[in-house]
Input
Amino acid sequence: MIDEKEIKSIVEAVIKELGIGKNQVVDGSLAKKAEGDDGKILPDLCELNLAEWFLIPDPAEKEGFLRIKRKTPARLGVWRAGTRYKLEPWIRFRADLAAAKDAVLTEVDSQFIKKLGLFEVQTVVKDKDEYLTRPDLGRKLSEEAKKKILEECPKSPNVQLIVVDGLSSTAIEANAADFIPSFMQAIKTYNLTLGKPFFIKFGRVAVMDEVGELLSPDVVVELVGERPGLVTAKSMSAYMCYKPNKNTIESDRMLVSNIHEGGMPPVEAGAHVASIVKKIYDAKASGVKLTDQ
Output
């Protein structure tokens, strides 16, 4: 058993390592602070830019190292304590891991879906546990979903947009609201008709094939949350396919990935994806069939 004195010494060591109460500066930028109950200040490590976070003492060429860091999200230059991470990089690692888990395990807020003006349907998946363990079920719409889609959506539009939670609810909530208006406006400028967009809960990428079978659009565009990592949990993808159906294979799909504030901004991505949709529509093909033309 650890006695009270040992616990106190451990807490004091952590406080000393974090520099509580000091204006900690990281690469010239003041870290954001959060005031604790005791009035002391703790740096918010989640707000630090990993591309600039550099802890190596007395580096031979710091500027050269920082140039390398700006080209990769890898955790370079965070130094070590013996063979282990220093305390601050370790806490940041755990925080980023927690954000990734939250993105997978939480669900997109139904109020957010309503604000987007979307109606909601669900695959045959019953809950999050089944969704994560049975990817095949996330590709199949429930009978209730099929009925509602046929009631709500016009058939045979040029373009059908669907929003799918995928493996990151955080990505959808962070990007869809900016992507959708940009995308819809660009589609209109191409004089293409757009079907009524909707949201699919517990969906996988290939659920677009069933949507294609139901509504017979020329092109389906699917926004889906990407599997989160330690760099970001907010990355969204846009999959596109010409006339998807039960015979569609993965090489028929096209993809724009890394849609988020640190990658391709969602507003820019909306216009970019629309331009690809126009190419797909004109060529009557997508994926490898389009690139081979």
